[in-house]
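Consortium newsletter contribution from the modelling node. Members have asked for a concrete example of what our holo predictions look like. Here is one, prepared for the D-glutamic acid complex that several groups have been discussing at recent meetings.
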Amino acid sequence: MANDAPIGIFDSGVGGLTVARALANLLPRENFIYFGDTAHLPYGEKSAEAITSYSLAIGDFLMSKGAKALVIACNSASAVAFEAMQEKFGHLVPVFNVIDPVVDATLAHGHKKIGVIGTRATVLSGAYKSRLQKNDATVTVNSLATPLLVPVIEEGLAQSNISNDVLAHYLNKPELAGVSSLILGCTHYPILHNKIEEYLKNRVAVIDSPLIVAETISQVLAAKHLLATKKWGKHIFYVSDYTETFEQIARQFFGNDLRLQEQTL
Ligand code: DGL
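And here is the predicted structure:
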């Protein structure tokens, strides 16, 4: 396996760019192939079967491009499709999900009253709750599906008053009362991290995945002697349905020379 082969990363849309950005910061030599499955967005409203079949098709595509690792930069797909991805590709390349590293980091920080917000698919899967409580039976986990946040972000409205109203609607719900930490269980939500923190008046520790996941990937690739050696850092971005909003947000993350390529699977 060539060290300088790209890391394959995917999400339904712009959310996984938060993970890709953290990875690019931490590992500037790595090359990425990013796939945003905009034709099927939002994953959070799809069945586990549909999300799994999209994920496997994207995995095939990224492997056909020579990926040396696969990153499921989507909580919904990590929650319902990780086992299938691991089974199909795990003997060929390391496969990463975004949930396990966050579970480990949350418990390592000693958080006990944990809130989780995420898509319907993630919350209904119970993935965070079961994995947190499997490792520490003393923690309480309250989860809330917050499905309006992804469309607000995908519409480029993260910094608008609309996102304030949507956040207020969710963050006041009784499900989240009394939590001392809040996991942002969707890779889109770090785009709203500061607003969420402000809204909670810094009383609640807000935990999101990009840096935590990037550190895990970096450690595993280093242990497997798979880190890039050359000074490249070239990234290629595919979407299954071209949208201008995706291109604009992707450029905010990766610079104005970024070009999106449309690829139907
Ligand atoms: N960013 C994804 C996640 O972490 C998917 C959001 C969606 O498409 O619903 O769940």
